[in-house]
Structure formats: C-alpha cells, structure tokens
Amino acid sequence: MRVAPATLLLSALGAAPALAVDLPLGIQLHGAVDVYADVNFNGPADHSNWIPGVGTTAKRANEASVNLVSVELVKDPEPVGFHLWLAAGTGADVVHLGELVGPSAGPDVWRYVQQASVAAKVPVGRGLVIEGGIYPSHIGFEGLASQGNWTYTRGWMGELSPYYQTGIKLSYAFDDSWSAQLHVLNGWQRIGDNNNGKAIGTQVAWKAGPSTLTFNTFFGPELDNDNGHWRFFGDIVWVLALNASMQLAVTADAGLQQRPNIDAATWHAAGVYVRHQFSPKWATSVRGEYYRDSDGYITGVAQTLVEGTLTLECRPWEILILKLEGRYDHSTASVFNTSTVLPDGTPSTAKDQVLVVLGAVAAF
User: Fold this and answer.
1) Residue 142, by phi and psi: left (phi above 0), alpha (psi -120 to 50) or beta?
2) Nearest to 157 by CA among 216, 242, 86
3) Less crowded by CB within 10 Å, the N or C end of the chain?
C-alpha cells in the first residue's frame, strides 16, 4: 500500500480505519475486504472499464466483483520490524502486470504480494529507518487500498505511476517539519529488474500546521536490457486542511524517458482533490485530473485524458466504508471500449465514458 498523504490525512481526521488485532511480540494484524458493483454506460463488450494495464479499482464493467481481499502483518521497527501485505482480487491482478517474466519473476510469481519488507531503526540522531524489500512507492497521492483514498476509483496519476517498488529505503525526520527519503530501486514498479542498472528515488517533505508539501523524484535506466537510456520523473503533492472538516490536495507530475535513435518521450499531469467531512459518518469528495501523454509512451496511445469524479462516502460502522461514485472520463483518442463488437472480435471504442460505482470496504 502506497502510504500517500491521502491516507495520512484521513487517519489524522479519524476517517480511516485504525483498528487492528494485537498479536504477540508487538505484531499487529490487519485485514480488509473490498467489493464493488458498477454501471458503465458504454456497456463494454469485454466487461473492462479501463485501458490495458490499469484498473486497480472497478476493473470489471456492469457486474459485481471483488476488488481486493487482503491481510497484513505489521511490526514497527523498534528497533527491528517487518510488513507483510498479501492481497487477491481484480485490483491485485492488475497491479503486477508490468513485471518482467523470467526465472523466479513475473506477474504469476508476485501476484498476491503487495508488500514484503524488513525495517530497522538505527540510533542516529532522531532515528534513521532503513527498509528493504517490496514496499509502497514514495510517488503519488493515492494508494492501492481504496479505504485510504478520498474517492473509490483511482485517478490516472495514481494508475500510471508506481504503486510499489523494490529496493532499499532510508528515511529520516530532521525535525517535526522536515523529513527526507533516499531509495535505491530495481526500477519503475519492478520486482524483477529488466536491465543491469539501478534507479534512484528521493523524497523531501515539509509539514507546517495544516499544510504538507512533498516533492518526489525518480531517475534511472528503464528500458529492457539497456542501461544507457534513463527515465526522469518528478512529483509534487500539496495537502492542506482548510478547516476541521474540509481538505484540499493539489498534485503535479512530469516525466521524460530517453529512447535510442528517437526523441525522448514526455508526459505531464495535474490533479485537484477536495474532501468535505460534513458529519462523523458522511463525507463527499471531488477530483479533477488532466493527463497529457503526447507520445503515447505511458498509456500506449498519444492522448490527453481528463476526468471528473464525485464521491459520496458513508461510514455506518467503524469498520465499514461505503462509497457511491460517479465518474466521467474523456480522451482525445478513442480508448474506452463500447458494446459494439468489430469483425475481428474486439470491442469498438469511444472517446468518452461515464461510470457509476458502489464500493464497500470492511477493514480493520
């Protein structure tokens, strides 16, 4: 699970489940069941709501399904800890699709593992935390577990950036306001490496009162069997608590991928999120996004995506979260499947899509 600002702020507001089963040796057990039903007004013939490679929420169209069933074992690094997160469902099937296929590598090997890491706190200054293994990406605002997000579906910025990464992370809080991370990684959402190079990730975070500003970077070789052409990526996340019940988040991404014998591919994106907790059990959230993939390198098609999402959230009991969501997506290219089947057996496509989703998550 990407521990993004959305999750941290929801926890601070008491809006995300903080329950756990305490086990011996300081280990905590968490679990969740995330189910959904949706209506896609395009009626896609293949029952797929999203473009290939994405869809970690509400992947299947016009049916009820299980998005994620998960169990977590967590021990804080005091001084040594670990985090194991296993999950299955339509979301878990999507998240590892880009994995390298090879000996002891590939989507089928890691399908159910979302996090498996060991951490230790070194007594340096305020405490240097070193973590190694498979762990959440430092990039982005939204995470894989929908109960930690303001909306049910993830936006394009979340879907098209890493949810997890594999390597070693160093984390240090200089004071109550400033913190930093350094990552040495196998690659961009990769467990099995596709070349002999390593990638570097960084994070600098600043918190002052109701405001948190985070700047994340990623750079390293990302092409198959190619150590010479690098990817450069930057991500900014600003989260502001406007008052006791309303929060604002603004995000921006920009990326560049070097390519042999051709100009570098570039992409950029921006998003705005607003959440209003108007009673202890009820909240609404709005999200708007713009994603420009002018070379088609990230999405597979040269396009600009825009989307707007409105979510009504109800929490009738502490462990249950219900989200009713309406979402509109538009692309400058025809990428959303429809009910018409072409002679070759594939669905025809459209530039627009309207989706209504009801999600239910029971989590502790």
Assistant:
1) beta
2) 216
3) C
Return the H-helix or E-strand segment holding 5.
helix 5-12
pLDDT band at 6 (very low <50, low <70, confident <90, very high): low
- The DSSP code sequence of 109-125 is HHTTEEEEEEEEEE-ST
pLDDT for position 261: 95
- Mean pLDDT value across residues 36-57: 96
**Three-state DSSP state, 147:** helix
Q: Do residues 331 and 303 lie in contact, with contact meaning Cβ atoms separated by under 8 Å?
A: yes
Domain around 98: 5-363
The Cβ-side half-sphere exposure at 82, using a 13 Å CA radius, reads 11
Distance between CA atoms of residues 347 and 334, nearest Å: 11
Number of domains composing the chain? 1
Four-residue CA torsion sign, 21, 5, 126, 210:
negative
Q: What CA–CA distance (Å, rounded) separates 117 from 124?
A: 21
The C-alpha atoms of residue 333 and residue 331 are separated, in whole angstroms, by 5
Q: Give residue-wise pLDDT tens across range 209-246.
A: 999 999 999 999 999 999 999 999 999 999 999 999 99
pLDDT higher than 80, residue 71: yes
pLDDT one-digit tens code per residue, 300-357:
999 999 999 999 999 999 999 999 999 999 999 999 999 999 999 889 999 999 999 9
What burial class does residue 228 get, using C-beta atoms within 10 Å of its C-beta: 0-12 exposed, 13-18 middle, 19+ buried?
Answer: exposed
Residue 106 tokens, joined: 């590939």
Structure tokens at 43: 């009626």
